[in-house]
């Protein structure tokens, strides 16, 4: 029987669906129009409903002018919105705006958004809304602090019943021998000893309803709690009607910052000026995460060789300290140090050969050769002093400095371990790297012990390996023992640098746009540069500062 019912229902649904499809298909067809006897246009099955304009509806259906008990609930409070003006903090002494005076007025109005003060719209009665805020529970506890313990009538009745039961039990136990149980004498005794109730004359008197309402209103105002709804528990986060948190004023993003100071750079032979640059690279993301910071540690004698090309020296080019910002700390971040020299004729390998062969102790033996090299360097500086060529490079694994198992000796900056090759250093710390590869959560560049390093392992720059892809391969090999780095020819040099967490508000600091960052007491002091960061991943923060590249002067 159930099987036949199933077939009946199945065929009924099938036939009904086919009928609906047929009616829908024939609706509006010419044959159906002829049967209806008129050229009426077909009507759509569904009509689009226009949404209600809320503002127009509220303005056209304003509440009545006559007062009522629910008028305050129907209208919005007139003093709900408050406009507050918050002064925008400028971190630099100069406003971050272009210096051109011939800008269009519309462009200047558009740039005013970076200098105008913040206008905050605050709701006065927002605390009475149904929103959920993370601070709701804290405010609830603050309101309930100092309140008296609330006792309700139900609790008082239960306590009174228990007290009456105890009194009755004592009374019965005392008078059990004097009066018989349930006799009239015990009832008379209770009536005589009971106190009479207070009289309520207002019950017997006739009072007008208006006076009664006024009296009740005055009675409700007496002893009223200041925050009656404070006793009600705050709404649960899962059951909240809306979630709304007060946003903070937008501010420029700033990650974890480290301060790198370049102290000295020495070679076995000193024949020409050598320049250096610092940059951060993320091997895992295969991205360069900062711009280059160029520093000059040459002596006055070497700088004099380039004086015809640099008649005026900007104070921003004298910086030897840099502040790097790291938004996404990782165990794969390297500080890459590159050395450059003045452009010379010949191959890169041939130009760097004297630094790998000649020693300071052999200067007397190769005196004529050194004089010839100095003469060639002077000629190159006079003709091509504005141009540079790659010379050597090295890298520092920042995770070694941050972690407590780092391979760099912090107590003795001139230790022998720093003078060994990268291959020996990697072999010595292979097990340490395996233990430290637990994740990027161990990296915290904001709090670590400052370290002074003496870097002695520089590699000669190969002419056919100048791309970033080759650099990423070398950096990956530096984390593990590899024969690739052993094949690279070292350049004898000593670079002494200091790495430490950056202070909150450093003095004598220049922004990436070469603006003076507060505080900057004396403009003649050698500055510290803030290096522009290129985050490995996008940072979703508003741009509140106008950034432009300013030429050093």
Automatic annotation (TrEMBL):
UniProt GO BP: small GTPase-mediated signal transduction
InterPro entries referenced in this protein's UniProt entry, alphabetically: DOCK, DOCK_C/D_N
GO cellular component, as recorded: cytosol
Molecular function per GO: guanyl-nucleotide exchange factor activity
Region (Disordered): 131-181, 208-240, 407-428
Pfam families: DOCK_C-D_N
Signal among keywords: yes
Domain of life: Eukaryota
Segments of skewed composition (Basic and acidic residues): 136-145, 159-180, 208-218, 409-428
Ranges for domain Dedicator of cytokinesis C/D N-terminal: 47-155
Annotated signal peptide: 1-16
Keywords attached to this entry: Signal
Name of the protein described by the UniProt record: Dedicator of cytokinesis C/D N-terminal domain-containing protein
